[in-house]
Write a structure and sequence with these properties.
0% strand, 345 residues, mainly alpha
Length: 345
């Protein structure tokens, strides 16, 4: 896979050094992912998580030492190929059977959350003249499942690497703030464990954020919260295909458009892995929980390394000029979402 990547790469590297430079670049992204993992062990940063901490380290590295050009091929491999591989593995986290059997009622609310998040974020971004693609990515991330949703949608809408990284960083930051706020507010809210869990599951950004906020509410709150969140992950696939349809139709309607649409085959892998994880592996083919846990951890490491590759493309100047308005739009949307969903649980 690495060798084929080099053959397609726009900036060919000398054959004798290509493989080593690619491995070095991939290793570099995993090294920063490790630094993010260690940073997340520090009190305070533990709320941000490994992914958010790793992106922070990547951003700091870029500002102080610049982009490591010698390792570019491997870093690009991580941010492109490894990212798609991580999304495919992410499918194992989705148990289709559980969602369809126990969460059909929640799916309706989940669909409403996704529609509201995207429409509200885009509308607010238009009102304040915010960057459209970053706002769209943030709307999808807020409505569906944070970084994973952004990573899935980004190649479909042909988002720039720096825009994708900025969006993931904002999602990690805002989601962490909201999940901590939920735990602080919980004792003062007139909600049962069940209701609090649903509220967390249908309104917070990442699966990790839902787990962080719902766990203090008890096991029932955590279980129903994760189920509600899985419903939003389940809807990621039809949402992606809806974006594919819209973009293809828009491109075909523009006679001057020379855009060549590339079908995101990794979504098929995501679906296949979801089916295998739901009905085959662990059901008809016995697999230990330790193996499944290891697979989940591996997918998280791959996603983190991929996001590091994206984060290395971001400059603080871009962050200041491009991110503040989308952050404002997404922040307002998140507040409205939390408020509205509180009254429908």
């Amino acid at each position: 896979m690495v060798t084929q990547f080099f053959k397609r790469h726009k900036h060919p590297i000398q054959p004798q050094n290509a493989f080593l430079k690619c491995i070095g670049g991939i290793g570099f992204t995993f090294l920063i992912a490790l630094l993010g993992f260690l940073l997340a062990k520090i009190p305070g940063f533990s709320y941000v998580g490994q992914l958010g901490s790793a992106i922070l380290v990547a951003l700091l590295y870029r500002q102080f030492w610049g982009y490591p050009e010698l390792l570019r091929a491997g870093i690009v491999f991580s941010s492109k190929t490894l990212l798609r591989f991580a999304i495919v593995l992410y499918g194992f986290k989705l148990n289709i059977g559980v969602v369809l059997e126990d969460g059909l009622g929640l799916l309706v609310r989940d669909a409403g959350v996704i529609i509201f998040s995207i429409v509200a974020t885009l509308w607010l971004s238009r009102m304040i003249d915010a960057d459209k693609k970053i706002s769209l990515l943030l709307g999808v991330g807020t409505g569906v499942c944070g970084a994973a949703a952004i990573a899935a949608i980004a190649p479909i809408i042909k988002s720039k690497d720096e825009d994708t990284a900025i969006s993931v960083g904002i999602i990690a930051l805002v989601g962490t703030i909201f999940s901590i706020s939920y735990t602080i507010l919980r004792p003062f809210l007139p909600l049962s464990e069940h209701e609090y869990g649903i509220w967390s599951g249908i309104s917070l950004h990442e699966i990790a954020h839902v787990a962080l906020a719902a766990a203090p509410g008890g096991q029932d709150a955590l279980a129903i919260g994760l189920l509600a969140k899985l419903g939003r992950v389940f809807l990621l696939v039809p949402l992606c295909f809806l974006f594919i349809y819209i973009i293809k139709r828009k491109s075909s309607g523009d006679e001057n458009s020379e855009t060549v649409f590339e079908f995101p085959w990794f979504l098929i892998g995501f679906i296949v892995m979801s089916i295998l994880g739901s009905y085959v592996i662990g059901v008809t083919i016995p697999i230990s929980s330790k193996f499944m846990s290891g697979l989940t951890d591996f997918s998280s490491w791959c996603l983190t390394a991929a996001m590091v590759g994206l984060g290395l493309n971001v400059s603080l100047r871009d962050l200041r000029t491009k991110a503040l308005k989308p952050l404002l739009a997404m922040g307002i949307t998140s507040i409205l979402l939390s408020t509205l969903t509180y009254f429908i649980v």
